Amino acid sequence: LRLIYTTTAVQRKNVGASGPEKYTEAFIKKQIEEFNLGKRHLANMMGEDPETFTQEDIDRAIAYLFPSGLFDGHARPMMKHPREIFPEQRKIQWGEDGRPFHFLFYTGKQSYYSLMHETYEKLLNVEKHQDQLIAQDLPLQKEKRNLAGSRWLTKIELEEMLLEKLSDDDYSRFIQLLQKLTDLPCSDIEEKYIQKFSKELPVQMQKVVIEPLQYDEQGVAFSTGEGRRKTARATAVVYDNGTGKMTVNGKDILHYFPVLQDREQLLFPFQFLGRIGKHDAVCTVSGGGRSAQAGAIRLACAKALRSFVTEKEVEFMRQAGLLTVDPRVKERKKPGQEGARRKFTWKKR
Amino acid sequence: RLMQVRWSRYNPSYLEPEVNKEFYQKPLEELTEEEREQMELKAVRPIKAAPPSLSSSVFSDPMISKFTNMMMRDGNKVLARSLMTQTLEAIKRKQLEKYHKAPETEKETIECNPYVIFHQALKNCQPIIGLSNITKGGKTYQVPVPLKDNRKRFLAMKWLITECRENKHRRTLMPEKLSQELLLAFKNEGPVIKRKHALHKMAEANRAYAHFRW
Q1: Strand pairing of A246-248 and A280-286?
Q2: What pLDDT does residue B91 have?
Q3: Mutate to test the interface with A, among B1, B2, B41 (most CBs of A within 10 A)
Q4: Any signal peptide, and if so, which residues (chain A) (predicted)?
Q5: Four-CA torsion A11, A15, A19, A22, nearest 10 degrees
Q6: What are phi and psi of A199, to 5 degrees?
Q7: Given CA atoms A296, A301, A302, A307 in this order, what sign does their dihedral have?
Q8: Checking CA distances to A22, which of A56, B20, B96, B141 falls within 20 to 30 Å?
Q9: How many other C-beta atoms are found inside a 10 Å radius of the C-beta of residue A166?
């Protein structure tokens, strides 16, 4: 089997018309036949049924027969369907006499421009339909598409679809045109066309499991939470039926956080839910600085409070920004500069 | 715009958090169309973490935090915050003195709430129109240009702070200077208001170049 493997990184760059066709159709067909044959041989070797041998089984079999200690997953031996390995390429765009097939070939970006023309045609169609409805005095349809649940294709996905390189400007112009099309009231006619270019967003936040309350010896309900901010790591245990006392690393918050801003941050989740005097908290924190530790404990308390509170209030907490981990960390210093952003003093000579 | 110019640690799809408690307690019927769309969008998209200067308590005011950040030097937020609280305290004291000395008829007109005084003073200091340098035919002209809300607020705060830092006696402390300036601005007097009027006059004088604005 003489199979040529390329990594996905190289594939990404080579997508599109980057030169004449490297692999002919006949070659790829032969590769597919060889792949299917090889799949059956492999199934036989492993003692499994060749008809129901899926890609996962192939991966497991290869990992068993050719164990490799290489770190890079793409460098290990793999056996995948040729369509995934050889990137889709455009066929030769001109006939035997040298005349190109597509009328926009000489623009350089034939698929992009033909796509823009198509979309604009649909726009004109919708406007004509609108005019007809107005002429007949019928009401315009006002069913709005749910914008929240879908997103447009990214530039890379669009490039893959068109098999052509796009610039940022081209991409934004196309998206603006699509937006214009969707904003028209009668765009339901072209719904199918628009759906080709939009993707469903997975509905957020439904995967987080809220832990049930735990009960300690005296029957007091409590719950734990962990939080982090910059380099600080904190854990908080929030008890029910409390008086609003909070302890950090054994000390009272008044001693540990002399600054008002930090104490405000600690009380933020409780104040937001209106439960200031009702809970006790015992926290441990390490690492980071003054403000980072306060932020870490705030996140830990908010996570612990999720178990005490209804689902709607959890959603409100998330929308208030209490349950997201702050991803901002100190930016690294770069060589050739004095700091992360500050450059060395510029001297003319 | 679809393409990002600056980068941030958050994915561009993250939305800003809404901290106000009353916003979440409003029943569904009172919301307008836009707010309903916003709510739907928020239910699907991830949300950024609330920054440490933002809190849902009654005492946190976004304008005051912005002013504190502008007063801050070398990242010393503790000092800036304490100066701010001392300023508000000083304003309250001065107003209470005036209140107790005033006759019965005037007692109602004297404003004692330092937050109200701060907001009103800032509003009075905001310029309406600004000047921008536009180069045309080799020469640079000062063209009158309408300002955005953010820019107006920024200029008002900047003028107040520079006025206090530079044009006062060296030995007086910042809270005293600031409280004086804020009270004067509240009554539409004082050097900051003069500066605003000077800017307006310049804009009026250069009215002839207004058509240069692209």
Answers
A1: parallel
A2: 93
A3: B2
A4: none
A5: 50
A6: -125, 150
A7: positive
A8: A56
A9: 19
Which residues, in sequence order, are CB contacts of A310 under 8 Å at separation 6+?
A: none
Q: State the greatest distance between any 2 C-alpha atoms of chain A, in Å, as a whole number.
A: 91
Q: Which residue ranges make up each domain of chain A?
A: 25-85, 105-200, 214-320
Tokens 């029910």 found at: A240
Domains belonging to chain B, first-starting first, are 15-57 (no CATH), 61-212 (1.10.455.10)
Q: Give how far Cα B127 sits from Cα of B59, B131, B166, B177, B183, Å.
A: 28, 11, 21, 22, 18
| C-alpha pair distances (Å), A107 with each of A102, A111, A177 | 10, 10, 20
Residues of chain B in contact with residue A260, where contact means CB-CB under 8 angstroms, are: 81
Residue type at A131 in one-letter notation: D
pTM of the predicted protein model: 0.75
- CATH class of the structural domain A214-320: alpha beta
In 3D space, the residue among B77, B73, B51 whose CA is nearest the CA of residue B62 turns out to be B51
pLDDT in tens, A277-295: 889 999 999 999 999 999 9
The encoded tokens of residue B184 equal 């004067």
Residue A8 has a pLDDT of 44
Q: Which of B55, B59, B81 is the closest to A265 by Cβ?
A: B55
Helix (H) and strand (E) counts in chain B: 8, 2
Could you give the angle at which helices B149-166 and B114-125 cross, rounded to 10 degrees? Answer: 100
Burial (CB count within 10 angstroms: exposed 0-12, middle 13-18, buried 19+), residue B14: middle
**Is A147's pLDDT higher than 70?**
no
Helix H, strand E, coil C: the string for B41-106 is HHHHCCECCCCCCCCCCCCCCHHHHHHHHHHCCCCCHHHHHHHHHHHHHHHHHHHHHHHHHCCHHH
Listed in sequence order, the DSSP H helices in A184-289 are 191-195, 253-256, 260-273
Checking phi first, is residue A241 left (phi over 0); if not, alpha (psi -120 to 50) or beta? Answer: left
d(C-alpha B142, C-alpha B50), whole Å: 40
Give the gap in angstroms from C-alpha B19 to the nearest C-alpha of chain A: 5
User: What ipTM score was computed for the predicted complex, to two decimals?
Assistant: 0.86
For A97-112, write each residue's pLDDT tens digit.
Answer: 888 888 888 888 889 9
Backbone phi and psi for residue A150, each to the nearest 5 degrees, phi listed first: -140, 160
Output phi, psi for A263, to 5 deg.
-65, -35
**With an 8 Å Cβ cutoff, are B1 and A172 in contact?**
yes
